[in-house]
Amino acid sequence: MTVMDYEIVIGLEVHCQLLTKTKIFCGCSTDFGNPPNQNTCPVCTGMPGALPVLNRKVVDFAIRAGLATNCSITSSNIFARKNYFYPDLPKGYQISQFELPICLGGYLDIEVEDETKRIGITRIHMEEDAGKLVHPEYEHGVSFVDYNRACVPLIEIVSEPDMRSSAEAVAYLKALRDIMVYLEVCDGNMEEGSFRCDANISLRHWGAPEFGIRAELKNMNSFRNVQRAIDYEVERQQDILDGGGTVVQETRLWNVERGISMSMRGKEEAHDYRYFPDPDLLPVVIDDSWVDEVRQSLPELPAAKRRRFVSDYGIPEADTEVLTADRDLADYFEAAVEIFPQPKAIANWIMAELLKFLNEDRIGVANCPVTPRGLAELLMLIDDGTISGKIGKQVFSQMFSAGDNDPKQIVADKGLAQMSDAGELVAMIDEILAANADKVKEYQAGKTKMFGFFVGQVMKKSKGQANPQMVNELIKERIG
Amino acid sequence: MKLYNCSLESLGEQLAKGEISAVELTRSLLERISAVDDVIGSYLTVDAEGALVQAEAADLRRRQGDNVTRLTGIPIALKDLISTVGLPTTCASKMLASYRPEYDATVVSRLRQAGAVITGKLNMDEFAMGSSTENSAFQKTCNPWDLERVPGGSSGGSTAAVAAATAIATLGSDTGGSIRQPASFCGVVGMKPTYGRVSRYGLIAFASSLDQIGPVTLTVADSALLLGVIAGYDERDSTSVDTPVVDYYKNLKKEINGLKVGLPLEYLGAGLDPEVETAVRLACSQLSAAGALIDESVSLPHTDYAVASYYLLATAEASSNLARYDGVKYGFRAEGAEGLLEMYKKTRAQGFGDEVKRRIMLGTYALSSGYYDAYYRKAQQVRTLITRDFDKVFADCDVIVAPVCPTPAFAFGEKIDDPLAMYLSDILTIPVNLAGLPAISVPCGFTKSGLPIGLQIIARPFAEETLLNVAWQYEQLGGWCGRRPELEKKVG
Ligand SMILES: [Zn+2]
User: Which residues are in the CB-under-5-Å shell of ion ligand 1?
Assistant: First the structure.
């Protein structure tokens, strides 16, 4: 991006679909992928006379999200109705929170270009999702509604307008997603829409006291698209301002295919949602003991985990990013370290081998055929010289494909143990040196590169099982 | 005496003694409905076939001694906004003319569990919005005491049916007086329980924070019996309250010696029909003679603001509650609409009647950005003040007595074009809904022209036991309950 005359101001609104088993106001399942309208009942289809009953697990999840983002938890929670008409909204209103959301005034620290920046979190509130419209291709002018998703719990996390670049926005979004996934509050899937983001963007002259007029961007279903859409919007607004125009307050839809955004509705078409407290639901009172209970169940968050991996295990910071990106992977690492306390070796193996295999087979750490114990025992065999690192990789491959977690047995069965018997090695070396007397002479005359040739020959003869360190030492002893 | 003319209490005894069967009783009632309901117009749906099947099941249950209750075999009819599986539940609206619920309201499940026989669904003002039942999209219901007059509303079908003996007992719903006012117009006993006493699950909402289902019966004892079955906590209604349900029937006959009764001066003010005032004052002196202590100095100073705040709160909630009727999922959808917006507009323009539209607009306005604080929030504050008024009176008094309505039943068409005059007929019942209190309308006399007058008794939250006790004692003192209009003459 070019040097700009303007400061970019970005605020994000993030919707997380919660991983509760049942919906927020009825007992229907939240399972994804069932036939249309299978996960429904009179409550979530807005039948006349049906009433919502709050799933208290949703409150637990929202408190979890709030504590992890340093928010204060509101003791008396009010659900409000957000009124608007749309076919995917069965009651003609969405049950949400307005005046008293569950979490207020938090923040998240993000890292951008090696600097830490604090992004304020205005509020987090609980609400229900809407259904989904289906427009069949075979019949024009007809639409169907699938209410399986209606009434699935969401939290909306609203940031302060604290971000100053698309990179910061993406960093914030990634940090937030990591946390929600760690908390097991949300699966964080942007493509499937269980983690969705809207962005409010405005520009202002450097030092201007007021924010500029903002546009709201919707429909960005990946980190990359968030970045592209914001960059596009910044340029668009910059062009308008440079041309002496004014930005129109509006909602714009990002078009992934065309890489542009288009106006969806202007300010005058904006809804008046006529929020008011939902008389069907009582205020939810959250006392300190409820908050404490949730606090005690909180897992260690990614940032804290990274710091601990650096200080306790001496893992380089860059590597901790990889190891903690996934809570299961971090747990895997620690379980292996517990058995074989050589964290660096384990970290290297996880990053170089394990992740490669997992990615190739597209499986998650939780389903990894090699257990932390299996990996630890393999590394112990390398460490004590039973096998070389190279053979170790072969054994690992074997373990992974067969789901066999007994590396010792594999090594024994396949005769992969290193030759570490000095006598045997000496005999082999002497034989090779005798057969290559001319080369020995060359070496002794100063052609030191020849040394590698002798080692290679020994390794070849031993089918790779000779202990390379011993081979080195023994050859040196022999030919000086 | 014809079976349809008997009280629920007496029929329960006859059934228990094996003197009659539920099938006999149900037949008697169905015949009565055929004979007079063409003139009265209480029923929107009569489920004759279903009722007989249920009656046979009730008789079998009784023969087998299987979970027999005082309601086993008793026919009950329901206001047409209480959901009944498979049976039309229309809210007397074109919007839901074709709607058949896929589930039973909790009160219906409770009635079925008790073995009651659901005979049909009763007329009402559309979506319970009105005070005369004239707002029904389908038919007119006449006051059995004077066919030229309205039965009151919105539960006019429920009260007219009990008065005309086309139902033994019915359920109505009361949002601003919709059980008590028509009960007083029709000379029957109508009760609004404490908000939260009876589950609202399956009650099609008008104003959620005010609606409450209650019994309409010939006598106070019947009211106690029916309330005992429908009352109680329901986990499907978050606003229902988990306090124990006592045996209201068993406790009816306690003495009222020393009971403190407040007669609020604001309820005897201007606009009160002199005949109504005379009847209420006579009732007070009878209670006093029975040992109750009447305090005429009690005051509910915010009464004047009740109607205004009610019509903001109730319409605000209604504007949101009725948003679901959009032509997408069930009920009426207008023909020939081009596109979504037009479908919404045409469906709602054609599906709702004038009064419903008027209230949706009023409520939408009250919630609009920029007006919320001046209207909705202010009305909530008034509601709090009204509740406090009652708290203060109840610190000293056990019950409050008052008229139910400033006038007896009015003529068809008299107020239908003057919404404000119509709204004011609920002026003495609305404060009770705003405060969430239990109250009952008990017949306390007739005008010279032969129209019933109701006495309203109001009690503390969840003091239904006291309420019914005082009502029963007054019923004995007054001697007005159980009277029947001479319908045969009118019907011919
Ligand atoms: Zn459901």
Answer: A 26, 28, 41, 43-44
Look at residues A292, A308, A323 and tell me which one is the last residue of a structural domain.
A292
- B contact test, residue of A24, A43, A47 with most B CBs within 10 A: A47
**Same structural domain for residues A205 and A317?**
no
The hierarchical CATH code for the domain B3-254+472-491 is 3.90.1300.10
Active site residue B441: no
Q: Which of B236, B364, B375 to mutate to test the interface with A (most CBs of A within 10 A)?
A: B236
**CA B69 and chain centroid, separation:** 24
Tens-digit pLDDT profile for residues A243-299? 999 999 999 999 999 999 999 887 767 789 999 999 999 999 999 999 999 999 999
Distance A53 CA to ligand 1 centre (A): 10
Residue B346 annotated in active site: no
- Same structural domain, A212 and A327: no
Among A414, A445, A470, the domain boundary falls at A414
In B8-22, which positions are buried (b, 16+ CB within 10 angstroms) versus exposed (e)? bbbbbebbeeeebbb
Instruction: With residue A444 as reference, give the H or E element that holds it.
Output: helix A437-444
Task: Annotate A14-33 with b (16+ C-beta within 10 A) or e (fewer).
Answer: bbbbbbbebbbbbebebeee
C-alpha distances out from residue B87 to B146, B158, B331, Å: 31, 17, 14
Averages of pLDDT over runs of 10 residues in chain B (492 residues) are 95 97 98 97 98 98 94 98 97 98 98 98 98 97 98 98 98 98 98 98 98 98 98 98 95 96 91 94 97 96 96 98 97 94 97 98 95 95 98 98 96 88 88 98 97 98 98 97 82 57
Test A145 with B237 for CB contact under 8 angstroms.
Answer: no
Residues of the domain holding A84 = 3-292
DSSP B376: I
The residue of chain B with its CA nearest to that of A276 is B367
**Chain Cα centroid distance, residue A142:** 38
Single out the catalytic residue among B21, B42, B79, B199: B79
Number of domains in chain A: 3
> Are A48 and B99 an interchain contact pair (Cβ–Cβ within 8 Å)?
yes
Q: At A240, list the tokens.
A: 């308008």
Q: Residue A464 sits in a domain of what CATH number?
A: 1.10.10.410
Q: Which residues of A touch B324 (CB under 8 A)?
A: 46, 48, 90-92
Closest Cα in chain B to A142: B339
